[in-house]
Amino acid sequence: MKQPLEKIKVLDFTRVLAGPYCTMLLADMGAEVIKIEKPGTGDDTRGFGPFLNNESGYFTFLNRGKKSIELDLKNPEAIAIIKELVKEADVVIENFRPGVMKKLGLDYESLQLINERIVYASISGFGQYGPYSQRPAYDLVAQAMGGLASITGHAEHPPTRAGSSLGDMSAALYAAYGVMVALFHREQTGEGQYIDIAMVDSIFSLLESNVMRYTVDKIVPERIGSRHPISSPFDIYKANDGYIVIAVANDSLFNKLCRIMGDPGLKEDVRFSTDRARTEHENELKAIIENWLQAYTVEEAVEKINEGGVPSSPILTIDEICEDEHTRVREMLIEMEHPVAGKMKILGNPVKLSKTPVVIKNPSPLLGEHTREIIEKYKNRTKINI
Amino acid sequence: MKQPLEKIKVLDFTRVLAGPYCTMLLADMGAEVIKIEKPGTGDDTRGFGPFLNNESGYFTFLNRGKKSIELDLKNPEAIAIIKELVKEADVVIENFRPGVMKKLGLDYESLQLINERIVYASISGFGQYGPYSQRPAYDLVAQAMGGLASITGHAEHPPTRAGSSLGDMSAALYAAYGVMVALFHREQTGEGQYIDIAMVDSIFSLLESNVMRYTVDKIVPERIGSRHPISSPFDIYKANDGYIVIAVANDSLFNKLCRIMGDPGLKEDVRFSTDRARTEHENELKAIIENWLQAYTVEEAVEKINEGGVPSSPILTIDEICEDEHTRVREMLIEMEHPVAGKMKILGNPVKLSKTPVVIKNPSPLLGEHTREIIEKYKNRTKINI
User: Fold this and answer.
1) What is the DSSP string of A260-273?
2) One-character DSSP codes across B154-198
3) 3-state secondary structure at position A373
4) Residue closest to A71 by CA, chosen among A284, A299, A368
5) Mean pLDDT of B74-79
6) ipTM of the assembly?
7) Any idea where the domains of chain A sit in the sequence?
8) Mean per-residue pLDDT for A318-328?
9) Mean pLDDT, chain B, whole residue set
10) Helices A18-28, A166-189: crossing angle, 10 deg rounding
11) Considering CB atoms only, which of A220, A311, A319 is closest to B136?
């Protein structure tokens, strides 16, 4: 089957998470991604758990469908080979600290002299310019500096990191989107260009209307746990054996919830008669609902509340969502046969394309698996001995 | 200036957040986005605060650069006009509940008969197929069902929603990426296609290695607050007037931190002599660090710790990140002149393209502002009176 990006060749200098997830998104769509790895050890994530037969599940997930060549970027002959590769490449992606590629002579300014059609994306913590550009980036720092941590968690608890590396993942997504826009532009005009993505900018962009609450109303959004800012009861509630979501956003749904709860006189209570009143007396209402929920398991409660016409859902743990029928039907976990690890279940791709579905052609590469295949012809061309 | 998507025409049936953010990403890159709105009231978010001269900051942010036409989708003449528009469109995007567009005769199957080159993306809570497809979607439900809420927050507190609508925002990003991949494919082959994006799949995809910890090791990741799963001290800590991040991932950084803290004998303490030992005695170490931090403000502590060579950052509140020099230099807030609201600062775009930077040609449209302009020619063609 023809894949959308099968004519696209990506030179991938990325390591760890943000960069590799970006190039994974391109590989999933058919791009030939050539991952340049440090000789001997490769991407740091080859050493990150979980492991299966000593192969990293972390690395395997992020680097499926890519090729690996070992090249020492401090060796001028390796740089010469890379410059040969650049001539035939469409995209370069890197996530070193700003300045590193320039020192190597592999920055956009240098490479566009070799191939003016190149699309070159850099992902970093704070971007290529700006006051913090040279600071080290961690996901926790991106979530903290981007404003998300300040509004995640409960008012009475400290600011909180969201439970996965959203700074990396969102930067990867904006970068993949940016690369596709730049490739599309190149199709029309022949013009390549440079793309600069910062993790902090990416997190800040995810804050949506929280930002305008400040710029327009000078309100500083605070931590409000899981509840809805202007509707109630719309929150996470404790049932007998775990937590559930109940989502009531108007009076009609509240009346339904009262019926489901056996009509304990709530809707006649002035504290709960309007959405605004309910939000003002949210803690009292929550206590009443959680008291009622103590008689039900999560499964019972979610079923009973949905049957009564009010949106409710469980809060799935990672094992539960992995084992859920939804995940199976949507192919959100895919089994990969790896030559060393054997069978491994890894995260799928949520972009469901009808005519060119995601095909993962190969498992993640062994370190240097494609060194010989890829550089053979360039060795002759550059008379280089690697 | 030439923008990458200036030849692309998008018919935008989306409302609220996920769909409008996706079409905003396309409009920012130059696409002509024609937003089809309910006569009289339009997109619900026109009624969402914050307001400036009664114009919604929420709507203004998400719908910049788009055109608005009022069309009643229950009116067959409106459907006829839409079908005329489809003939000249490149992309259709909608985020109704699955089935709604089919009832209107505007599903992909119907529209590809009119224009086989159309790229058509649907965004929904649970996707177009799967066991929960018909359930109503809220961001809270997507974060809960997608597994993120179960790992966000502290072990001793309930599962927690991340503080912004990540289910919507990530689905929008995957959709924009998918649309660009499909447009690129169409450039090569002439073939349009259908794209199905689920908010729950999008959240699940953001969980990165948390998923493989379960599929490979059968470990169910739990809530660990803001701390690092295998390194310490790498967490959020309380200083005198607020919280800071300290990120120590190895012994060398820990030695530096001890020096910064005036060497209180920590590194000689067997409880803290290795990363593993520190992680095991994390609470004791945190208490010691926070006790020391009580003598410093956030600003003093971050400066002192960074000067000593250890990564540290403040946790910026929304006002702080909005007012920060980084945000100004990176143009992450842009001022828009709106004909009714006046000047309004809205979120910028984190994709920094060197040759075709984001240009927002127009403010968000007034309801129906472009109805006459857009449908005039189709009225003649279809002899329709709207």
Assistant:
1) HTT--STTTSGGGS
2) -TTS-----SS-HHHHHHHHHHHHHHHHHHHHHHHH---EEEEEE
3) helix
4) A368
5) 94
6) 0.97
7) 9-206+325-382, 234-319
8) 98
9) 95
10) 50
11) A311
Average pLDDT, integer, range A62-78:
96
Q: Which residues contact B4 (CB under 8 A, 6 or more apart)?
A: A181, A182, A184, A185, A188, B29, B30, B353, B356
User: Residue A83: in which H helix or E strand, if any?
Assistant: helix A76-88
Q: Does domain A234-319 bear CATH number 3.30.1540.10?
A: yes
* Closest chain B residue to the Cα of A207, Cα to Cα: B164
Collapse the DSSP code of A257 into the 3-class scheme (helix H, G, I; strand E, B; otherwise coil) and give the result: helix
Rounded CA-CA distance B188/B186 in Å is 5
CB contact under 8 A, B349 and A314: no
- Of B309, A297, B342, B324, nearest to B333 by C-alpha is B324
- Residue B362 burial (C-beta neighbours within 10 Å; 0-12, 13-18, 19+): middle
Question: Do residue A160 and residue B152 have CB atoms under 8 angstroms apart?
Answer: yes
CA A270 from chain centre, in angstroms, equals: 44
Question: Which residue in chain A is spatially nearest to B354 when comparing CA positions?
Answer: A194
Q: With contact defined as beta carbons under 8 Å apart, do B331 and B55 qualify?
A: no
d(CA B45, CA A248): 18
Question: What is the DSSP secondary structure assignment for residue B97, as one 8-state letter?
Answer: P
Structure token pair of residue A146: 């981007």
pLDDT tens figures, A145-173 = 999 999 999 999 999 999 999 999 999 99
* Whole-angstrom distance, CA of residue B22 vs CA of residue A325: 28
Q: What is the mean pLDDT of residues B182-187?
A: 98
Q: Which amino acid is at B126?
A: F
Please give the pLDDT value at position B384: 56
Does residue B277 register a pLDDT over 60?
yes
Other CB atoms within 10 A of residue A103 CB: 10
- At A284, is the pLDDT very low, low, confident or very high (cuts 50, 70, 90)? very high
Taking only the tens place, the pLDDT of each residue in A253-274 is 999 999 999 988 898 999 999 9
| Residue B5 phi, psi dihedral angles, 5° rounding | -105, 20
Integer Cα distance of B105 and B95 in angstroms: 15
Mean pLDDT of chain A: 95
In the chain, the amino acid numbered A140 is L
Q: What pLDDT was estimated at residue B382?
A: 62
Token pair 């972390």: residue: A58
Q: What does the alpha-carbon distance between residue B134 and residue B99 come to, in Å, rounded to a whole number?
A: 8
Q: How confident is the model at residue A197 (pLDDT cuts 50, 70, 90)?
A: very high
DSSP output for B311-365: -EEE---HHHHHHSHHHHHTT-EEEEEETTTEEEEEE--S-EESSS-----S-PP
- Interface test mutation site (partner A, options B2, B46, B206, max chain A beta carbons within 10 A): B206
B234-317 topology per CATH: formyl-coa transferase, domain 3 (3.30.1540)
Active site residue A228: yes
Instruction: List chain B residues with CB under 8 Å of A162.
Output: 148, 152, 162-163, 166
For residue B51 the two structure tokens come to 């307001």
Give me the pLDDT at residue B369, please: 97
pLDDT for B383 equals: 57
CATH tag, A9-206+325-382: 3.40.50.10540
Q: Which residues in chain A are closer than 8 Å to B236, comparing Cβ atoms? A: 140, 144, 149, 158-161
Three-class secondary structure of residue A380 per DSSP: helix
CA distance B228 to A160: 12
Give pLDDT tens digits for B13-42.
Answer: 999 999 999 999 999 999 999 999 999 999
